[in-house]
Fold this sequence. Notes:
The complex is a heterotrimer.
Chain A: H1 2-12, H2 17-38, H3 48-57, H4 69-88, H5 103-124, H6 128-159, H7 164-173, H8 177-180, H9 182-195, H10 207-210, H11 220-245, H12 261-285, H13 291-318
Helix pairs in contact in A: 2-11, 2-12, 3-11, 4-5, 4-11, 5-6, 6-9, 6-13, 9-11, 11-12
Chain B: H1 2-7, H2 11-18, E1 42-44, H3 54-58, E2 64-68, E3 74-78, H4 88-92, E4 98-100, E5 116-120
Antiparallel strand pairs in B: 1-4, 2-3, 3-5
Chain C: E1 4-8, E2 20-26, E3 29-36, H1 44-48, H2 53-61, H3 68-83, H4 89-117, H5 121-142, E4 151-152, E5 155-156, H6 162-188, H7 190-196, H8 204-210, H9 215-218, H10 226-229, H11 250-273, E6 291-299, E7 302-310, E8 316-322, H12 325-335, E9 339-340, H13 344-350, H14 355-359
Antiparallel strand pairs in C: 1-2, 2-3, 3-9, 4-5, 6-7, 7-8
Helix pairs in contact in C: 2-3, 3-4, 4-5, 4-11, 4-13, 5-6, 6-11
Amino acid sequence: MRELLSVLVTLFIFPGVAFLVACALLFEWIDRRTIARLQARVGPPWFQPLADLVKLLSKESILPRQADRPICTALPVVSLAAVLTAALYIPVGGRVVYGFEGDLIVVLFLLSLPALFYFLAGWVSVGIYSIIGGSRSVLQYFSYEVPFLMALSAPAILTGSWSISDIITQQAESAWIVLAQPVGFLLAIVGLIGKLKRVPFDIPKAKSEVVGGPLTEFSGRKLALWRLVVDIQTVAGIFLLVNMFLGGGDLTLLQGSAPLGLARAVTFSIKALGMLLTLSVTSVLYARLRIDQLANLGWRILAPLGLLQLAATILMGIG
Amino acid sequence: MSQIKSLLYLLPELFETLFEKVITVAYPFAPLELPANYTGRVRIEADLCRGCGACVRDCPAFGLELEKKGRDEFRLLHYPDRCISCGQCEESCRFKAIRLTNEFVEPSHGQRPSREVLVDHLPDEETDREANEDTPCAA
Amino acid sequence: MTRVTIPVGPQHPLLKEPLSLRLIAEGERVVEATMRLGYVHRGIERLAEERSYVQNLHLLERVCGICSHVHTTTYCQGVEALLDLEVPPRGLMLRTLLCELERIHSHLLWLGVLAENIGFSTVFMYAWRDREIVLDIMENLSGGRIAHAVNVIGGVRIDLDSDQIDAIRRSLDELHGQVDDLVNVVEHEQTLKARTQGVGGASLEQIRRHCAVGPVARAAGLDRDLRRDAPYAAYDRLSFEVVTESGGDVWSATRVRVRETVESLSLCQQILDDLPPGEVAVRASRRVPEGQVVARAEAPRGEVIYYIRSDGSDSPARIKIRTPTLPALSMVRERLRDINIADVPAVISGIDLCVACADR
């Protein structure tokens, strides 16, 4: 009985659904506020993301007559399930809910599912803007996903383990992987920006070109869930990068140490906030790219860099 | 180096902006400061008005009306909802009676009467129109 | 490949004013474009025939929001020519000052709109933050931020004392620093260049064929600016450079406009340094003698032409307005042929639409 209660608390409260949703809303607020301050504006108050979510949840959901209603209702729910499940396997401040050898691959797979569902959402909610946004999102997916996967496989090859907790432990013993693989770190950040569809890669939902992209026809509860998917994907992506490259809850740069749980949580939060600020600043620095420019960037610069990183890692491992 | 600099071109300006004041004005939670010649509400110095009707003739929004029954018996009406605060009445008045002040005119929707009597030199009698009836547009 | 029709319809996040475009696209390439105008048509030319010349001052100011002062300037020039009036030099200089301030305002607004439409919301916020400085100057001058109502037939209705001139000078100095930063961003920022360079190019021959005017034409190499070629108001007393580029694409148009903003700032400083004393207006009679006149001025978007015919009464018989956005819109169909969908916002913003002007 106690075990069941503990499992339920872990799944739904901490570090489960409630914690992730609270983190997602907090991160969205920090992101919007930082962007606003960098642009000489005030920015929303702390409860704005929660208010947006509650407002959307209470609105009517209207779809075009030709859109496939059951699929449109199921898609955001399934996407949310995918990102929540992925987040469960990512250690938070040293604690992980379920970890096993190979959970990195499961996490990467689950985190790439929402892109597919995003495209399907555009395809199925028949509307010219949705379809164009959907086809753009697929093109974009191929441009960023390959470098992202290569960048995230490099630490696993370096440490010789495909379990995220193991990678963290090995970083605690030796050094943060970002020092050994700075190129991989940059590729991972660029890939994360593409995955989260932030500027300069917000091409599928470019307001001035395709109005709303694949989610144009969604409204009400479905749209609320989609927005939550994006926010939780942000949280999951940031946590993953912090664990893989910045050592998770580890405190010192070079030497290993095992600080207390609270210290670990604090350092993890600081690193995660640092990543979030990096994401916010990069979304203010640039204009939106064109899809062919992104494809150029992805295949001519990012993918070769990723290959180089992998090759270097493998050679270092052999030698 | 210059490639990297041009890739992060806006970064210095972004950090400068972080430490400057925001440009958002906190209206309506902060008082509104208007310059002295802001085009606001129409006011009249009733003693100076002679009922010549120049302002009525020149108002581009047909916002003024004169009911004249004799040389010194007239009533000047103003329709605030039509006023565009252009200041032409002030320009046209030879006697400097009507003028544009810098009082801010709050937007309203049916909350203030649509007709305002500026000068009343008619003996006590009802005017031809109800208080809230709008004149037909002259065009 | 199948062709789809993308509506950049009357309601679209890209457009500030209603305009109906139908883009026929194959994949990501736009093949054809059709356009409909008229959503903001208010019948101003017809309304003007039923109002007196004095009332028309305020009616014609509202043809366009951003180039309001230039419309009344042109109108007043025409009526003053019919009345054979000469505006005193101080009045002319003040009119010109406000024309140039309006040009700065229009170009800053446009830069923000272009940046927002290509996804660069930071430059949008910065350009509109700097626009607030100009709006405050204009509000202190005339009492209104956008609708100034400064012109009267025969001159202007405002005057400046030395305190106001000093305050305006200080604001202009502050604005100069900000505009220089924006010029640098346009010249050097990589992503802005990537989205606008080589996009929507128009050759000089196309410009001539469609009679395009303004920064759009100057960006393709047409060296024509009414302030230099047919000086009106106080421009014959002032010195400035006409900015031209040769690319014809959106990036060239952007460079032309930000450099024109710098030139306008210098013109404003010249006016403030050189303001002659005297009256600001002469009295004008209400009845205008019979005749017809064509008046022209250089609005922020190009040459605006007024044809006024009077029949001796106090109301014009006919006013015909040719605004600079009309030829630019007639060129839009050609510019939108065979480009990416992602380039459509850049092209449409690059011609600096003012649909209210075009529809009147």
